[in-house]
């Protein structure tokens, strides 16, 4: 009987672990019950990577890391642990050595960049009244409202934090591009996915919140990765 890796889901900016709700349900219904979702502090890449490493180290056996948005930078930094057997990027940053999410975004700015506002404490917010059109335009308004009000803002300085040794250079990887993404320019997603030479790339006609708007398709990619890594 094959053993599947534990799947650890890593969220991004302007949302928490609950952004994975629909994917979690879908994975569980397909028999993948060894699931965890990290709640990141979003205070620095170092802090977020360390929080992820701690959860990885708590697992018995192999781990598949799945990162959405900025969570892709986190799994890129934290994914070098020996029991991490693969990485899945969902509309995510995948920085190279010395690169930061902010630096990557400057090359091809996202459509919604003007809708980000820093506060007096150093946190960067996605304007509440612009959240739906910026982050999840393919979700119902009520669902977008709840996501906007519960958004988890990062310290703005986190955008400039750089990756040291990118795990995708040595770990099997998969990538999902969102072609209608307004938070990470789809061109940046194509560039990042191409250079990592993933085992598979899929493109969804989805917003940045593909994990919520097309959870079945996102789950199918994660399942494909998990099956190929089962021992």
TrEMBL record:
It comes from the Bacteria. SUPFAM superfamilies: alpha/beta-Hydrolases. Keywords: Hydrolase. The keyword Hydrolase applies. Residues 7-220 form the AB hydrolase-1 domain. Transmembrane segments: none annotated. This is Alpha/beta hydrolase.
């Amino acid at each position: 009987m094959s053993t599947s890796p534990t799947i650890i889901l890593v969220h991004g900016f302007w949302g928490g672990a609950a952004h994975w709700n629909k994917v979690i349900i879908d994975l569980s219904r397909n028999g993948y019950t060894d699931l965890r979702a990290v709640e990141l502090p979003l205070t620095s890449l170092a802090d977020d990577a360390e929080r992820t490493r701690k959860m990885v180290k708590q697992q018995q056996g192999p781990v598949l890391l799945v990162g959405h948005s900025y969570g892709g930078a986190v799994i890129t930094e934290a994914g070098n642990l020996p029991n991490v057997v693969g990485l899945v990027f969902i509309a995510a940053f995948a920085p190279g050595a010395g690169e930061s999410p902010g630096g990557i975004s400057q090359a091809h700015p996202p459509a919604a960049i003007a809708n980000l506002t820093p506060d007096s404490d150093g946190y960067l917010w996605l304007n509440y009244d612009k959240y739906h059109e910026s982050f999840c335009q393919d979700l119902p308004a009520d669902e977008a409202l709840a996501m906007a009000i519960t958004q988890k803002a990062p310290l703005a300085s986190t955008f400039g934090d750089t990756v040291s040794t990118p795990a995708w250079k040595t770990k099997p990887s998969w990538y999902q591009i969102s072609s209608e993404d307004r938070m990470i320019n789809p061109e940046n997603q194509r560039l990042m996915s191409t250079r990592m030479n993933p085992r598979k790339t899929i493109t969804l006609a989805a917003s940045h919140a593909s994990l919520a708007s097309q959870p079945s398709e996102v789950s199918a990619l994660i399942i494909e990765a998990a099956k190929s890594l089962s021992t």
